[in-house]
Amino acid sequence: MFDYQSHFTSAIDALHTEKRYRVFADLERIAGRFPQAIWRHDGSAVEITVWCSNDYLGMGQHEKVVAAMQQTATSMGTGAGGTRNISGTTHPLVELEQELADLHGKEAALVFTSGYVSNEASISTIARLLPDCLILSDELNHASMIEGVRKAGGRKQIFRHNDVAHLEELLKAADPARPKLIVFESVYSMDGDIAPVAAICDLAERYNAMTYIDEVHSVGMYGPRGGGICEREGLAHRVDVIEGTLAKAIGVLGGYITGSRAVIDAVRSYAPGFIFTTALPPALAAAATASIRHLKQSQVERQGQQRQAAQTKAVLAQADLPVMASETHIVPVLVGDADLCKRASDHLLEKHGIYIQPINYPTVPRGTERLRITPTPLHDDALIERLRDALVETWQSVGIAFASTRQETS
Ligand code: PMP
Questions:
Q1: pTM (2 decimals)?
Q2: What is the pLDDT of residues 145-194, one digit of tens each?
Q3: Could you tell me the distance, in angstroms and rounded to a whole number, from the CA of residue 90 to the centre of ligand 1?
Q4: Which of 245, 291, 330 has most ligand 1 atoms within 8 Å of CB, for mutation?
Q5: Cα–Cα distance between 282 and 74 in angstroms, integer?
Q6: Are 187 and 219 in contact (CB under 8 A)?
Q7: Is 173 helix (H, G, I), strand (E, B) or coil?
Q8: What is the ipTM of this complex?
Q9: Which of 144, 186, 257, 364 gets mutated to test ligand 1 (max ligand atoms within 8 A of its CB)?
Q10: 257 C-alpha to ligand 1 centroid (Å)
Q11: Percent helix, strand, coil in the chain (nearest 5)?
């Protein structure tokens, strides 16, 4: 008899052996008091500070966003009640798509139930609709983009991370007549670096390739209206498809793509991940619209976040903590070992009430395990100082190398 259960247990055991078995922290957010939260653990409820949330601007508790969700749930009910095609296209969703198209200066937008689904469904559909399409994909692209590339089923080439020369080599070697799709991100979320978007657009124009950018970690946070890195750099009109999420800086849930009417209509008409699933509920769409509208005209959250991120980097670096280079709001602190990373995270939570999830392989390469800290405008200077003290004590007590020690030994 085939022993099904033992196969699952040994797969799990392998993760334990590699010290990368994931444990979830059971949290209760406290509306109006984020980044404070309650951690449910061993029958107790402990108040903690969250330092690893992707609710980058705290919009998940913004009064306009909460009110929009509540009012729409009261007036329209909870679920969408169907797929987009069969009764699920509610008016708040139509309005949200108009708002998103305007945010990115594109003709049209299409909303999915998550950013993950939007990448997987759109990349695979766009590539399949182009005959014999060659996909050129940055080596550090997110898992959802990799799945989209795989599902496309055609030929793909991986270019070295942010390496424009390597991308050009691959473009040059390809048949000029063949359709090509370059897929990349603007802000890479684990290192906090930014793609050379203008240079990639130059190449795309020179070699007649289409471009698809994931702005998941920049929408809401960069550009004068929160349109992301492409808006900040005046490049939105040069990128064919801009993808984003409603779940991070926007503070709700869902994903989307924006682009020309033709490409959006094609994905709408052919992508199984869009067609055969229930639409985003109207209350979530209304909340996302309220958040986007607010962020289009308010600079307060963006500026607050930039300031607190810069402050966090400076304060941690002054304390000799190994803050990795980052051009953005993301503050990665290097640990370099999966076991130490997990122990540091447990110690911070249990002893200091500070929650930072360890980031291990395969999310980042082995040997670069880290704590990924995401300051928001709501992490004030006193919280940053408490974070520094807790990290220093943790580095000493768990036995992790400080920045100066690391340099001496390397
Ligand atoms: N793209 C990138 C670069 C991401 O980091 C993530 C999620 N962390 C996604 C897409 C998926 O977005 P969502 O969480 O909305 O599914």
A1: 0.97
A2: 999 999 999 899 999 999 999 999 999 999 999 999 999 999 999 999 99
A3: 24
A4: 245
A5: 11
A6: no
A7: helix
A8: 0.99
A9: 144
A10: 13
A11: 45, 15, 35
Q: In the predicted model, what is the mean pLDDT of the chain?
A: 96
Positions marked active-site: 248
89: Cβ below 6 Å to ligand 1?
Answer: no
CA distances from 39 to 146, 195, 402 (A): 33, 36, 29
Is the pLDDT confidence value at 408 over 90? no
- CA 114 – ligand 1 centroid, Å: 8
CA dist 305 and 313 (Å) reads 12
**What is residue 131's three-state secondary structure?**
coil
In the sheet where 180-185 sits, what is the strand order?
Answer: 108-112, 255-259, 241-245, 210-214, 180-185, 134-138, 155-159
Atom of ligand 1 nearest to the CA of 144: 10
For 340, the enclosing helix (H) or strand (E) is: helix 338-352
Q: Is 140 in the pocket of ligand 1 (CB under 6 A)?
A: no
- Residue matched to tokens 């924006």: 258
CA distance 364 to 221: 23
